[in-house]
Design brief:
The protein contains 8 helices and 12 strands. The protein is of the alpha/beta class. Helix 6 crosses helix 7. The radius of gyration is 20 Å and the shape is elongated. 34% of the residues are buried. Bound molecules: NADP nicotinamide-adenine-dinucleotide phosphate (NAP).
Length: 257
């Protein structure tokens, strides 16, 4: 019998981990799908495809043509369009869908969080006075901060920021997570950061900046997750997804290596 085929919608560290763990079973064909935004994605277990499918219909067609037996949405919690397409494509094709979404971060004692509904509101909340601002929110979202040129920005991203999105007064850092708290604290001190803007991504890989801000008593403007009620049950970690994928495929939960 040919191996059952699992398509993982990725773009996150969890998706990579999931692909590696499922590939290690040895009884599944794994394809990881990337949006194609990162110029040099990290090496990956299993097959990789890159670029949009062409909406829900395009994804449904891909699922049929590639004989996919299970679809896993392991995209970032802010990637709502892809997640909605996944729900629709799963309905159109009958392919079972498993969704991974890390629980969001919650403020703890000592945090100075300021809630923002979206990135544009976060930019406005910086206020009229000049401040040094740390941004690690994704290159595509920088445009909102061009409307607040009074600040000095320290922008961190995996790939270089396009000229069109460059801010007037900014220092650019190229780096790829995970980022540990002590390193984030050193960076904030070195750069004289006064306020941090962060998306509420959840998970450990990028929590270091939140913990570092707390230890330095810095305010963090936290962008709330977009509201996206697809009615789909959501699993909180990679182990739960592995068990669920095995279950929907009628396979044993674990397989010896
Ligand atoms: P989005 O707004 O939900 O997606 C926009 C379009 O990009 C989708 O409709 C789809 O095009 C394509 N796409 C997105 N993810 C894809 C994937 N894994 N494989 C193939 N095509 C994909 O998402 P986004 O905010 O642009 O995010 C793009 C990617 O970056 C995602 O994989 C996400 O996990 C990752 N990411 C996003 C954020 C964030 O804050 N948004 C942060 C870290 C990582 P078609 O409709 O043509 O299929």
């Amino acid at each position: 019998m040919t191996s059952r085929h699992v398509l993982i919608l990725g773009g996150t560290g969890d998706a990579r981990l999931l692909a590696a763990r499922l590939a290690r079973r040895g009884d599944l064909r794994i394809t990881l799908s990337l949006a194609g935004r990162t110029q040099a994605p990290l090496a990956q277990a299993g097959e990789v495809r890159s670029g949009g499918f062409g909406g829900a219909e395009g994804l449904a067609a891909w699922l049929r043509e590639s004989r996919v037996d299970a679809l896993v949405d392991a995209t970032h919690p802010f990637a709502t369009r892809m997640s909605q397409n996944a729900v629709q494509a799963a309905r159109m094709t009958g392919v079972p869908l498993v969704v991974l979404s890390r629980p969001q971060w919650e403020p703890v004692e000592g945090d100075r969080w300021i809630d923002a509904g979206d990135v544009a509101e976060a930019a406005e909340l910086l206020g009229p006075g000049r401040r040094t601002v740390f941004l690690a929110i994704g290159r595509q979202e920088l445009a909102a901060f061009a409307a607040q040129p009074q600040h000095r920005y320290v922008v961190r991203s995996v790939d270089a920021v396009d000229d069109a999105l460059r801010l007037a007064d900014a220092h650019y850092i190229l780096d790829r997570g995970p980022f540990a708290e002590p390193d984030e604290r050193m960076l904030f001190e070195r750069e004289g950061i006064e306020v941090v803007v962060a998306k509420n991504s959840g998970g450990d890989a990028t929590y270091g900046k939140i913990a570092a801000a707390r230890s330095l008593n810095l305010p963090v403007i936290v962008v709330r997750r977009p509201h996206s009620d697809t009615g789909q049950a959501v699993l909180a970690d990679v182990d739960a997804v592995i068990a669920r994928v095995a279950h929907v495929l009628g396979l044993p939960a674990e397989r010896g290596e």
